[in-house]
Each structure stands twice: as structure tokens, then as C-alpha cells.
Design goal:
Chain lengths: ~240, ~375
């Protein structure tokens, strides 16, 4: 039996303002993302990539459409869960362009805090944090503060933080933008590893052409709509 | 994992420096309250030390601490003969400048009768006055030692004993001498002035046997109010109970100082609140990205609010404790007595915590308005 998509987006639209000032940021976007896949979202500035990421991340409420995350219908013309932060904590991991590690916590604490927020004890959270740092190969830097980490190390810690609660969805906003080719490749390898070993769906917003070949599918957004598919993307895209 | 403490320890130097500045401000607030308490203790100290239950003063006046009161010295005998009186003693009060070791000392001279109400209370060093002339018991605040001599007016007095913490409401240390010496000090004129006065009032000699008040100690079971009412029937006398006397002092001397210090304390607390508010707001702005990230990964609002409120309270607690420690260590260097009472400190601590909670409101409001999506912006 075929696996169900982890992210199912159906006819999602989002507009800002009304009348002559109305801006259609997303126009009827539909998208399925399956477990173990890494997909890319590309497009020019203002095409709606970040808006789509914010909608899937339950940060921004769409205007219409429906969305199912890990099998749970979370939006159907309105949010169906009041506790969207709890939803994010439980189902989604975020990776940012600049690592966004909390400057007052060291590497393992940055990872553990996500686990603690989800209800784990500090001791359990620390064990999990060290496990993830070991998994990503930077256990020796566990006590380093963010300012003491290199760009690549910081991004690995950010990936570890995104994995802390074993989310099925990982949203990454230009995670390689601040890295050189080699480090960008390493980060993408890690995201691939995470997707395959954790059976997660990884959605990456990127402009970085040097990593385009690392995705299972790349979707182009233009003026808030997904462009007609080409190549490998065809099987997961529902064209408008 | 306490995020507030983690953030504080990350910027420990800056946080502690801020607390130090705030602690000085809160220390001054505490000192102001202590100065007020000291003023009350000092003002009432002399009245309470007299050990009287009723003060008989000049008719139509409120006693020597509020206005001029002068009575013939022999009134004491009339009062002492009243039913219910255990002891009565005439007292006089006068401020003088005395020269001592090349310095001018401002002293409150109390003239009292030996072994009668009004004489020097608990002598902590040396002995009470036993001889009728030229002996003195001084407060330690006067800087005199037992055996030392000091010139008061035209006579030299030997300090035979010391009291502790006994000053007038103006802060002048008290020195006790016998009533007879005090009357001489009050009315003795320099030779030239005496000759002129003698020429002006040839043949007429005014009495110098006057007192400012007669202090009465009653027998057990005698009602002081009733006794005072009986005395007032003598039209030329007025009588106040000890409570009345303290109330008069509180109204005339302390009340204005209390209002002044109260206003100043309120202003300082308001300034402290504004400062804490601005510091917490600035700290929140510095953490905008971190707060957006926390919200994005799923931290509930109570965690964010907790982060800010706990920092504000930590700032208040550290600053208050440091300020209190500074004032406790340094209150002896104040020229007037500073009385730090635990109840005042506890009340001020409560006010500081409330002020910190109020001050954190702006930071909390700002934090709650931070859009989690802003964490995604480069």
C-alpha cells in the first residue's frame, strides 16, 4: 500500500489587503509531499515561497483551501486547532537561513529547549540533544555557545534542534544561503539523511542553484501559483 | 531549564552593572525610609526617655517641644502634693553652642533634678549626676568622654556619665545637667550685659527659678487622662499625657518631614520603575529574534512572559538586596540616625516587586506582539 503524503495542501490561497491594494500571495496552490522526500521551492522574490512555507508551518492563516499535516486535517477554511504552537512543536521542525540559535544557550541546550517545551524532563532532553549532536557529528561541540560555532556547525545544531521532537515535517528557509558550496552540500546531505532515516518530509525554500540537484522534486512558484511541472516533480504536483 | 537565568548569565556583566545602578537608587529609597524612622525615634526618644506620664506646662501652650512654655519652679511642689503623684520633677530645655576641642558643638541642654522624672535615663557608661553642681551626663553623639570637661556658658562641667542614642528632634546630642545649673546657664549674663541690665532695672530682680515643664510620674492605678484634666482646672497650667505629648511632636515636627520624605520616596520609586521598565524593554528588543524563534518552534506565551517577568523580578530582587546591604553597611556614616526596620524593608521589597511587575508590562506587551514569522526573515 502506497504511503500517504505527510503534507497535503489543497487549493490554498492567501491574499493580503482588499480592493485595489489586494495582493494575491498564493493562488490555489496544491501540493503533496511524501515521507522520505526532500523537495525544493524556488522562485523569484515575491513569488510566494515564504508565504507557502509560513502557511505549511501554521504561522500564517490562509484565506481558503485545506491542509492536512501528517494525516491530521489542520485547516479547512479555518484553523481546526486552537493550539497552533503546540501543533508546530509536535509536527514541524524549522531550519532558518541564519541558524537562529538562541544566543544565551549552548549547543546542546538549544536542542534540549525544544524537547523541554514539548514536555520532556531536562535530563531526557539533554540525552536526546547529545544523541542528535552525535548523529550529526558535532558532539564534541556540545558545550559551545552559538558565537563559538562555525557557520556549518551552527547550521548542524539548528538541524538537530529541528529534529529534537522527531517531527514528520521539516521546513527549511534557505538553509544554505550563508554557507559555501562544500558546507551547503554537507547540510543537504544531512537533510537527505534525516528525510530517509526519520521518514520525514523536508521542504526547502532556496535560491541556491548549486543545490538544485539535491532535491527529489523542485517546484517553481511565480506570482503565487505553482508553475506547470517538469521532470521529476510531476508525480507530486497537482497543477492548477 | 530557566531561560531567564540563562539569558542573564549570558549577559551577566551588563545585567549586574544595571543592577548595581538600580541598587544605589533603591538603597537611597531605603535610606529615606530609614531617615524618617530615625527622625521619629530621635524626636520621640527624648520625650520617652523622660519617663513621665503627664507633662504639666504653661497654660495655653502645648509643651516645650512645640512652643515656648515657662512655669515658676515652685509649681513642682504644688503638683507633687497632688493626690496620685509618685514623683514630679521640673525640667528645662535649651539649645546652645559649646566650644570643645576647638570645635563648636550644638547641644540640647536638659536641666533636670536629681532622682526626679526628667533626669538622664539609662547611663551606659560612668554614673548618673550625683552632685548638685557642675556635673553632666552627655550622649555619646556629643563626642565627649567620661571625665572630660566642657564649658557650658560661663562654667566648666565634668562629664560623669554617657547615654546612647539620645538626641533632640533637630538631631543635636543631649547633655544633662542639674536644673539649677541649667537655670544659671539660661539666665547668667556676661559681666558687661549684667551691669547694663542691672542699671536698666535698678532694684528689680526677676526670678530665675523657672522651668519649661514639670514631669509627673503617677502612682500605679492612677489614670493619667483624669489627672491631666484635673490639672487643667488650674487656669494657668496645661497638662498633656505622654501620648498627647508624642502626638504633638508627631504633628508639629515629624509630619512635615514625613510628607517630604514620603514624596521624595515616591518619586524615587517612580524613577526606579521607569528605569526597570526601560531596561527590560531594551532587553526584550535585544531578544526579538530569539523570542520570534521560540514562538516559531512552539513556545507558549507563558514561557515568553515568564522569561521577561522573571528577569524584571531578578533585577528587582538583586538590586534591592544589594541596595539594602549597602545601606546596612553604610548607615552609620549618615549624620542623622538611620533606622532600618525589618517591616519597612519587607514592605519596600513588596513595592519593588510590584514595581518590577508593572515595569515588565511594556516588555511583555512588546514580546507578545512579535510575529513568529519574523524568525524566518534573514
Amino acid at each position: 500500500m502506497a504511503e500517504q503524503p505527510v503534507v497535503e495542501v489543497r487549493g490554498i490561497s492567501k491574499h493580503f489587503g482588499e480592493g485595489p491594494t489586494r495582493v494575491d500571495a498564493l493562488r490555489g496552490v496544491s501540493l503533496d509531499v511524501y515521507p522520505g522526500t526532500v523537495i525544493g521551492l524556488k522562485g523569484p522574490s515575491g513569488s510566494g515561497k515564504s508565504t507557502l512555507l509560513n502557511v505549511i508551518g501554521c504561522i500564517l492563516e490562509p484565506t481558503s483551501g485545506s491542509m492536512r499535516l501528517n494525516g491530521e486535517l489542520v485547516y479547512d477554511g479555518k484553523w481546526l486547532r486552537a493550539d497552533l504552537r503546540g501543533l508546530r512543536l509536535e509536527k514541524i521542525g524549522f531550519i532558518f537561513q541564519s541558524h537562529n540559535l538562541l544566543p544565551f544557550l549552548n549547543a546542546w541546550e538549544n536542542i534540549a529547549v525544544t524537547r523541554i517545551l514539548a514536555g520532556a524532563s531536562p535530563a531526557q532532553a539533554k540525552i536526546r540533544a547529545i544523541e542528535l549532536l552525535t548523529y550529526l557529528g558535532i558532539e564534541r561541540r556540545k558545550d559551545a555557545m552559538p558565537g563559538e560555532l562555525s557557520g556549518g556547525e551552527a547550521q548542524r545544531v539548528a538541524i538537530a534542534r529541528a529534529l529534537a521532537n522527531d517531527p514528520r515535517i521539516i521546513l527549511a528557509d534557505e538553509p544554505t544561503a550563508a554557507l559555501d558550496s562544500q558546507r551547503a552540500g554537507t547540510v543537504m546531505d544531512m537533510l537527505r539523511k534525516v528525510a530517509e532515516e526519520h521518514r520525514s518530509a523536508v521542504i526547502v525554500v532556496t535560491h541556491d542553484e548549486k543545490i538544485f540537484d539535491r532535491f527529489d522534486h523542485i517546484y517553481s512558484l511565480r506570482d503565487g501559483a505553482l508553475e506547470p511541472p517538469g521532470g521529476a516533480a510531476a508525480d507530486t504536483l497537482v497543477p492548477q | 531549564m530557566n531561560l531567564a537565568l540563562k539569558d542573564i548569565s549570558h549577559n551577566l556583566g551588563r545585567f549586574l552593572l544595571t543592577c548595581l545602578g538600580l541598587s544605589l537608587l533603591l538603597g537611597i529609597v531605603l535610606a529615606m525610609v530609614g531617615i524618617y524612622r530615625g527622625l521619629v525615634v530621635e524626636s520621640l526618644g527624648l520625650v520617652r526617655a523622660a519617663g513621665a506620664q503627664v507633662w504639666v506646662v504653661e497654660g495655653g501652650t502645648r509643651g516645650p517641644f512645640a512652643e515656648a512654655s515657662r512655669l515658676p519652679g515652685d509649681t513642682r511642689e504644688a503638683i507633687a502634693a497632688q493626690w496620685g503623684v509618685a514623683a514630679a520633677g521640673g525640667v528645662s530645655y535649651q539649645n546652645i553652642d559649646a566650644q570643645h576641642r576647638g570645635q563648636t558643638k550644638r547641644l540640647m541642654v536638659v536641666g533636670a533634678q536629681i532622682a526626679r522624672p526628667g533626669e538622664a535615663p539609662l547611663v551606659v557608661e560612668g554614673r548618673p549626676i550625683l552632685r548638685s553642681r557642675y556635673e553632666a551626663v552627655a550622649d555619646r553623639g556629643a563626642g565627649l568622654a567620661v571625665g572630660e570637661q566642657i564649658r557650658l556658658g560661663r562654667d566648666m562641667f565634668t562629664v560623669v556619665g554617657l547615654t546612647s542614642g539620645l538626641v533632640a528632634s533637630g538631631g543635636d546630642p543631649v547633655i544633662f545637667i542639674t536644673l539649677r545649673d541649667a537655670q544659671k546657664l539660661q539666665f547668667d549674663l556676661a559681666p558687661a550685659a549684667a551691669r547694663r541690665e542691672s542699671a536698666r532695672s535698678a532694684g528689680a530682680t526677676g526670678t530665675t527659678n523657672t522651668v519649661n515643664a514639670i514631669l509627673v510620674r503617677l502612682l500605679p492605678g492612677v489614670d493619667a487622662n483624669r489627672f491631666a484634666q484635673d490639672i487643667v482646672r488650674w487656669k494657668h497650667l496645661a497638662a498633656l499625657t505622654q501620648e498627647d505629648q508624642e502626638a504633638v511632636l508627631a504633628r508639629s515636627v515629624i509630619d512635615r518631614a514625613r510628607r517630604q520624605i514620603g514624596l521624595f520616596t515616591t518619586l524615587l520609586l517612580t524613577v526606579s520603575t521607569v528605569i526597570v521598565g526601560l531596561i527590560i524593554y531594551t532587553m526584550t528588543i535585544d531578544k526579538k529574534k530569539a523570542i520570534a524563534t521560540l514562538k516559531l518552534i512552539g513556545a507558549p506565551d507563558r514561557r515568553i512572559v515568564g522569561l521577561i517577568v522573571q528577569q524584571a523580578i531578578a533585577m528587582g530582587v538583586i538590586s534591592f538586596v544589594t541596595g539594602a546591604a549597602l545601606i546596612s553597611a553604610g548607615h552609620g556614616y549618615f549624620p542623622r540616625r538611620v533606622v532600618l526596620e525589618p517591616a519597612d524593608s519587607a514592605a519596600l521589597f513588596g513595592v519593588v516587586i510590584i514595581a518590577c511587575l508593572l515595569a515588565s508590562a511594556l516588555g511583555v506587551r512588546t514580546a507578545l506582539k512579535i510575529d513568529p514569522a519574523s524568525a524566518l526573515a534573514g
